[in-house]
Design a protein that fits this description.
The complex is a heterodimer of chains A (131) and B (81). By secondary structure, chain A is of the alpha+beta class. Helix content of chain A is 45%, strand content 15%. Chain A contains six helices and five strands. Classes of the chains: A alpha+beta (131), B alpha+beta (81). β1 of chain A pairs antiparallel with β1 of chain B.
Chain lengths: 131, 81
């Protein structure tokens, strides 16, 4: 049994200190997560997600009907790099609720299955999307 | 490329008492369900639990492992399922 994707496997992670992260980009990310109840950083847009995991995250948020802001990191290389450092989380999508990092799509799926995501949104009084 | 056994070994090496299951969910060699159960997960957020698994896999991430769905569960130290 073999798992594919040799490219991802062979990529050596760059130590954080060696990366050049623009502090102003980190400030911008902080601003976004502070000023929106729910923020999803993703590849692509909810209408046109550019990776399976991002599509899954969109699907989960759509299922629960909450209002959220999505931010497409593929349009901004500096953001794409900085978002991974911001929460020390290596992949996209990334979900933030009331300024807190919640996790990626697997965390979201696991929370959905156990009802904890619904609980979190209810507890935080997250507004529903108007559609 | 990474062998399934290698994934299991790496996780067990880094997370003490971890019970690791890797299932080929569709039987097509492209969709795996990775379940990691460990007493060490207790008291940690799900994000932290998943992060521990990423780290155990040597930061070989960037999609962690494409096609692999991760689930983490807390178990008691003596719980040998």
């Amino acid at each position: 049994m073999i798992l594919h994707n040799s490219q991802a496997m062979s990529t050596t992670p760059t130590p954080r200190a060696q990366r050049l992260i623009d502090p102003s980009v980190l400030d911008r990310i902080q601003g976004e997560v502070d000023s929106n109840h729910v923020v999803l950083f993703m590849n692509g847009t909810p209408v046109f997600p550019l990776c399976g995991p991002s599509a899954q995250a969109v699907q989960i948020l759509g299922l629960l009907g909450v209002r959220y802001k999505s931010i497409d990191v593929t349009t901004d290389p500096s953001l794409r790099l900085a978002i991974r450092d911001f929460s020390d989380w290596p992949t996209l999508p990334q979900l933030y609720v009331l300024g807190h990092f919640i996790g990626g799509n697997d965390v979201m799926r696991q929370m959905l299955e156990t009802g904890r995501l619904q609980e979190l949104f209810a507890m935080c009084a997250i507004p529903m999307a108007d559609y | 490329m990474m062998e399934a056994q290698e994934i299991i070994d790496l996780i067990k090496k880094e997370i003490p008492e971890a019970q690791v299951r890797l299932e080929d969910v569709r039987g097509d060699g492209n969709h795996y369900a990775l379940t990691v159960k460990a007493p060490d997960f207790r008291g940690r957020s799900l994000a932290d639990q998943h992060r521990m698994v990423f780290m155990a896999l040597g930061g070989r991430v960037g999609g962690i492992l494409p096609g692999v769905t991760l689930t983490t569960l807390v178990c008691a130290p003596q719980d040998k399922a």
